[in-house]
Design brief:
mainly alpha; 3-stranded antiparallel β-sheet; 3 strands; globular
């Protein structure tokens, strides 16, 4: 079966249209400043996470893109865990996006207020959100201190939901910072809470986080065991969660591929792909196809890898998966190079550079 090249002009128009739309939304958001006192500080265009990506842009290859996506996921997870009230009912704070110079920070004022009111739940919540604010600015040490202060309060009042959130945020910060042992410690703490409260969803997620961390550390036996004996049975039999089952297959495939156990990696990528097709999950299909192609490239099956990558490309264009297209173009360049088609390899690489630069410019 032959595959006709997809027009690059269509791809470029698609991504440039997405970026133009994002810029338009950003402009509108900047013009819609709140007309009330708010404890939500404006998001800086130059926060440290974006600066990290800016420094990485000149680096060749796919790594800056993966760093960007990792930072983006980390930032969105943290933002989702902050739960401050939107209105600050005092005479100072953040007004229309600006902090009054004659006042303490909005966070400090809220802490002062709730400590005097004796509302420990609210105080712990503010501390958690204050920690999130520091983490988003790249002040990881201060974020850890504040998360632990929030955790101490929640432990004293036995707010298990909030304790789990503190543990999860600490695990995320330590993982993002590359401190895997500390991240593992806090994920174990989440496992203990989930077992005690019989929260199977939380438990399965904690098991998967541990598997991911152990894979990153090269502890493959531990990662394999916790997925096969703990996470997969939970997702498959108890939760009947197809997305969770796919994640188990994907993580197992990654674990085996890093060990160069390509037969097992290929098998689990195929299992993930089959589940994704069964539930009509295009993003899951694309993800498994890319990973399957990587395995085939590793064992020298370049023609078969090309077939998988081209299908992933078509689905990504159809569903506007811009992030996937960047990686796909890089993979196409590598495959065509191995197949001896220098013209196609150079064309794919040129498209990769354009898409990569366009994507990373959105981080600035």
């Amino acid at each position: 079966m032959s595959y006709k090249p997809i027009s690059f002009s269509i791809l470029f128009l698609s991504i440039s249209g997405s970026i133009s739309f994002a810029a338009h939304v950003k402009t509108e958001m900047n013009s819609m400043t709140p007309g009330h006192w708010s404890v939500i500080p404006p998001v800086s265009m130059y926060d440290s996470l974006k600066l990290q990506i800016k420094k990485a842009i000149p680096e060749p290859g796919i790594h800056p893109v993966k760093d960007y996506l990792n930072a983006l996921q980390f930032r969105e997870q943290l933002r989702a865990s902050a739960d401050l009230p939107s209105v600050f009912p005092t005479s100072a704070g953040v007004y229309n996006g600006f902090l009054g110079s004659d006042s303490l920070s909005a966070y400090d004022q809220l802490l002062f207020l709730y400590r005097n009111l004796g509302d420990r739940n609210a105080e712990a919540s503010v501390l958690n959100s204050y920690a999130v604010s520091h983490a988003l600015k790249g002040n990881m040490d201060q974020a850890v201190l504040l998360f632990n202060e929030s955790l101490g309060l929640n432990l004293r009042i036995n707010n298990r939901t909030a304790i789990s959130k503190n543990y999860l945020n600490l695990a995320r910060v330590y993982k993002f910072s590359g401190n895997f042992p500390e991240a593992i410690k806090y994920n174990h703490a989440i496992v203990d809470i989930a077992l005690d409260t019989r929260n199977n969803v939380m438990l399965a997620e904690a098991y998967m986080n541990l598997a991911n961390l152990w894979t990153s550390e090269g502890k493959y036996k531990e990662a394999e065991a916790i997925i096969l004996k703990k996470a997969l049975p939970l997702y498959y039999y108890r939760l009947h969660d197809k997305i969770g089952t796919m994640k188990c297959y994907d993580q197992l495939a990654e674990t085996y591929q890093q060990q160069k156990r390509f037969s097992e990696a290929k098998w689990f990528n195929i299992q993930s792909n089959m589940v994704a097709r069964k539930i009509n999950n295009p993003s899951g299909i694309v993800y498994s196809l890319i990973n399957l192609a990587h395995v085939k490239m590793a064992i020298g099956d370049y023609q078969l890898a090309l077939r998988d990558i081209r299908e992933a490309e078509q689905l990504s264009v159809k569903n506007k998966y811009t992030h996937n297209l960047v990686e796909i173009k890089n993979d196409l360049s590598e495959v065509y190079k191995k197949l001896g088609d220098s013209g196609a390899a150079n064309s794919a690489f040129s498209e990769f550079i354009v898409l990569k630069d366009a994507l990373l410019r959105t981080a600035l």
